Amino acid sequence: MIRFDQVFKRYANGREALAGVSFSIEDGEMAFLTGHSGAGKSSILKLIALIERPTRGQVFIANQNTAAIKARGVPHFRRQLGVVFQDHKLLQDRPVAENVALPLIIAGLPRRDIDKRVRAALDQVGLLSKEKSLPLELSTGEQQRVGIARAVVGRPRLLIADEPTGNLDPELALDIMQLFKRFNDVGVTVVIATHDLHLIDRFAARRIPFREGRVAA
Amino acid sequence: MSVSAWTLRHAQTLVGSLGRLVQAPLATLMTMAVIAIALALPLLLSIFLANIRAATAHWNQALDISVYMDKRASAARSQAVAQQIRSRPDVSAVRLITADEALAQFRSVSGFGNALDALHDNPLPDTLVVTPALLAAGPNDVEALKTALAALADVQTVQVDTQWVTRLQGMMEIVNRVGWLIGALLGVGIVLVIGNTVRLDILNRRAEIEVMKLVGATDGFARRPFLYSGVWYGLGGGLLALALCTAAVGLLTKPVAHLADLYDSPFRLQGFGWRGGVAVLALAVALGWLGSWLAATRHIRAIAPT
Q1: Chain-chain contact of A107 with B216 (C-beta, under 8 angstroms)
Q2: How far apart are CA B107 and CA B114, in angstroms?
Q3: Which residues pair with B68 in a beta bridge?
Q4: How far is B3 from chain A (nearest CA, A)?
Q5: Looking at the predicted structure, is the pLDDT value of residue A162 above 70?
Q6: In this complex, which of B5, B218, B306 lies closest to A110 when CB atoms are compared?
Q7: Closest residue in A to B215 (Cα–Cα)
Q8: Ranges B15-29, B56-70, B95-109: which has the least confidence
Q9: Please, which pLDDT band fits residue B161 given cuts at 50, 70 and 90?
């Protein structure tokens, strides 16, 4: 599903975030990217979502070389991908259901299908009763679950998350992680960047540790 | 995406962007007012010009040429010349005012009766009042007719005042050009005002646009609501401009009619008509769309999620 081949990333400010990273993640696998902040985890996720491009080396997603995806093709590429952010990135002035519906509206689905799939996604994260609430009326944990519902509503084959439990207390964090595990159980490839080693000890999933822009031995 | 879903989506965006504008009524109204004033100025000027043109269109034709006969010419001679002029194709009527009639008229209106009595003989010549034919009413035609009349035997002087009409038309041509220039400049102004408003709007909603792009929105999708805002700004500004001009025409109708009556003219002030109104609205919407398109295309492309 994902293959990094000798990937280097140097940002415009000169910081070298990735210094020759190679690894691959199989279809249907669940993997944790671990390491201190600045180790390169976030850069990996940004390269997967085409938010950034590698300075050198190649990134393959679903057997497609991402270098071949031009700017025009990026929106369409992102629709096949579910992304969860540490700060949720919800639209604060729109109710939960509309936030979750956003990827489907963008993809141009008929309203009927959108309503059905939004309710299904909200049901999966246990927030069906909150569909009309505004994000700010929800707790942080609930907001994160809305973010997850939005990421999975398009039924992506690949779900990536950057520190999805970063702002949550341990109990809520475990909840969220179990939610990701459930999606992985039904075949979705899940890649989560986290520095919470205690939490991921409870999951039998692969870890890819990063240190100073490299995969640590 | 099916056609009906596409149409529905556009309709929703259209209404949605209107909803956003209504949420900030004062700011929206201010922007629309700026557009309205910028549209109303050239529109009023064009209404003014159209009315002047309508009022002066027939002045050449209403213009009479005064032909003064030599004082020594007999009344019979004047009659003959009148007949000669009457036969010309570029003349529609000739009226002879004899020296005696002219004197009587002058005596009755001038109040110089006693002074005139002191004169031994009538100082006034016979006068022929020549009305040019409608076909020959252009300034050049009138000028040619004048030359021909002056060449007739026993004609002393030919007086025709076409010059001021020609000058007026020259002036109106300049005002017309200035009007177009001002209109063009204000049109650019409208594009810039809407562009700037949309730019600020985009900056305010930067986070939202980032999120949209992150979940797969194309630039075109993110731009759409802003294009509709521009269309609404244009439409609102256009309607306001029409209201302003209607009010201005309404204010002037009565005094203009009064003035026209004083000149025995049937002239009445004309507004812009429904065609003009539709044209102004279409132009306003087009400028709104253009302004928002220019700003949104540039600034939305520049927003990249991080």
Answers
A1: yes
A2: 9
A3: B127, B157
A4: 10
A5: yes
A6: B5
A7: A103
A8: B56-70
A9: low
CA B124 to chain centre: 44
Report CA torsion sign: B199, B203, B209, B213: positive
Chain B's closest residue to A78, CA to CA, is B216
Q: What percent of chain A has pLDDT over 70?
A: 100
Q: Of A83, A108, A111, which has the smallest distance from its Cβ to B214's Cβ?
A: A83
Radius of gyration of chain A from its Cα atoms, rounded to whole angstroms? 17
| Inter-chain CB proximity A108 and B6 less than 8 Å | yes
- Contact assignment for A75 to B217 by CB distance below 8 Å: yes
Instruction: Please give the helix or strand (H or E) that residue B208 lies within, else none.
Output: helix B206-214
Q: Does B212 sit within 8 Å of A102, measured CB to CB?
A: yes
Q: Which amino acid is at B196?
A: N
Tell me the C-alpha distance between B252 and B52, whole Å.
14
Mean pLDDT of all residues in B83-94: 87
The rounded distance, in Å, linking the Cα atoms of B207 and B130 is 80
Note whether A83 contacts B306, CB cutoff 8 Å: no
- Walk me through the domains of chain B, giving residue ranges and CATH numbers: 3-58+166-302 (no CATH), 64-160 (3.30.70.3040)
Using CA atoms, how far apart are residues A169 and A175, in angstroms rounded to an integer? 10
> What pLDDT is attached to residue B139?
63
- A55 contact partners, CB below 8 Å, separation of at least 6: A8, A9, A10
> Tokens for B185?
């400049």
Question: Alpha helices of chain A — where are they, by DSSP H?
Answer: 41-48, 74-78, 96-107, 111-124, 140-152, 170-185, 197-200
Residue A111's pLDDT is what? 85
Structure token digits, residue B27: 């700011």
Partners of residue A18 on adjacent β-strands: A9
Residues of A in contact with B5 (CB under 8 A): 108-111
User: How many Cβ atoms from other residues are within 10 Å of residue B61's Cβ?
Assistant: 16
Structural element, H or E, at residue A2 = strand A2-10
Q: Which of B6, B208, B221 lies nearest to residue A91, judging by beta carbons?
A: B208
In this structure, which amino acid lies at residue B43?
L
Give the closest residue to A2 by CA, choosing from A32, A37, A36, A29. A29
Tell me if A29 sits within 8 A of A159, measured CB to CB: no
What's at B268, amino acid-wise?
Answer: R
